[in-house]
Amino acid sequence: MIRRAGPADAAALATLNSHVQALHVAWAPHRYLTSDPTAVVVFFDALLAREDVIVALAESDGLDGYAVGSVQTREVSAFKHASVTMVLDQIGVRSDRRGAGVGRALMGWMEAEGRARGCEQMQLEVLAVNEGARGFYERLGYLPEQVRYGKVILRDSG
Known about the structure:
The chain is of the alpha+beta class. The chain is built from four helices and five strands, in the order βααβββαβα. The radius of gyration is 17 Å and the shape is globular.
């Protein structure tokens, strides 16, 4: 079952997030922090209070996974059409529940929520090194639209 998360779910979301965050830290320590669990609960408390953010929880044998997204509206400009997009910011599934359809169910729920809010598309970002997630998204019909390049540059302190 997928449901919308509420204020009482902040601690559970922080726990579900911890594995995903650890992977991000391992893959890109220059960008991601090893998070303090209390700070992550505070983060999710604030996120759940925002009206522009949608947080979904998957439940069967306890809490199995979560997804966070928001609807973003872009006005027409001299260069681009107006658009309404569901942007997926986070998704995580308990390691013992992977392959059981939890991620697929969360993505379907977020897509339906986006459609109900007038979104034309759903977008997300994934680290290039995360081949498992890339394959998952591609199996769901997501295709690369842009490639963002990055380079770590450090100032010479001397």
